[in-house]
Amino acid sequence: MSTVAGSHATAAGPLVYDPYAYGIHEDPYPTYARLRDEAPLYHNDERGFWALSRHTDVLAAFRDSDRFSNAEGVSIDPAASGPHAHRTMSFLAMDPPQHGRMRGLVSRAFTPRRVAAMEDRIRSLTVHHLTTKLLAHAWYWAWANPDERCKAFGQPARTADWVEETLRYDTSSQMLARVTKVDVALHGRVVPAGDRVLLLAGSANRDPRAFADPDRFDLDRDREAGIASFGVGRHFCLGASLARLEARVVLEELVARVHDYDIDAAGACRVHSVNVRGFETLPTTVVPR
Ligand code: HEM
């Protein structure tokens, strides 16, 4: 089996990817690298799912809603998956034609003009919260990559690039589930109709086949291949431009107020969720400007 330069795959032990494992919540990236190299179509026998990890495969499956269905939701959490998933997840858990009808109605609230018009309100809310309390949301965005903090604070004018690279480097949406509508042949095997397939967006974003030196946080990098963080195709995140705007505004206002900060790494605690990556607690001492 060939290994692609830039991945940090190691041949240590049997390859197991379990999205419930705390080790995966701490650092999924070495496992993703092994999946891409050793098992691009992976099957977890115990939990009964397949996983796609290469950039090309993940993006192709996102686009292929004829064969990869959202009708049972996008999570492997039993409480949020199954034919009734649309009751909690709305049109994210629908296929065409219902999906298109619902999305068409809601998308009117997310036109570029409507989103741009929200900036002033988002900024005043951000300033209010920053000056009264430091929002956990803000800290997540600013310090998803603690080692890279100087990139934001050294170059405040580059906050938009910083947001973009954070979305690639360490996305909060690590994976989305689909169910196959028909038998699907992939990497020499057949995924039978009705099986669950996880699309590992967090892995696609770190695939050296798509991004040069993908484990490096690089504001200047070429993201031409496309990040998987907001999905792709007909379910592409409707709030993507709003999320980018919010993150940029929060970061701009933080950089304007914070001179330096220190994270108590020993006190940090990850969110233990199957698909959301982030911190539940991140004790931080701040030196204001
Ligand atoms: C950084 C923040 C966000 C991330 C990483 C994110 C990620 C995603 C992803 C990956 C999908 C596609 C799911 C799939 O294909 O299975 C999605 C869909 C969606 N997102 Fe977001 N999202 C974010 C923020 C938002 C915000 C702020 C809103 C709205 C205010 C929003 C609304 C939606 C909706 C409505 C869909 C369903 C679209 C459809 O099924 O057609 N998202 N999001």
Task: Describe, in plain words, how this protein is organized in 3D.
It is a single chain. The protein is α+β, with helices and mostly antiparallel strands and 289 residues long. It has one domain: Cytochrome P450 (Cytochrome p450). The chain is built from twelve helices and eleven strands. The strands form four sheets. Strands 1-2-7-4-3 form a five-stranded mixed beta sheet, with helices on both faces. Strands 5-6 form a two-stranded antiparallel sheet. Strands 8-11 form a two-stranded antiparallel sheet. Bound molecules: protoporphyrin IX containing FE (HEM). The site of protoporphyrin IX containing FE has 17 residues, from helix 12.
* CATH superfamily membership: Cytochrome P450
Are there runs of 5+ residues with pLDDT below 50, and where?
1-9
Overall mean pLDDT: 89
- The fold-level CATH name is Cytochrome p450
- Strand order in space, largest sheet: 1-2-7-4-3
Which sheet architecture does the biggest sheet show? 5 strands, mixed
Oligomer: single chain
Spatial separation of the terminal alpha carbons:
53 Å
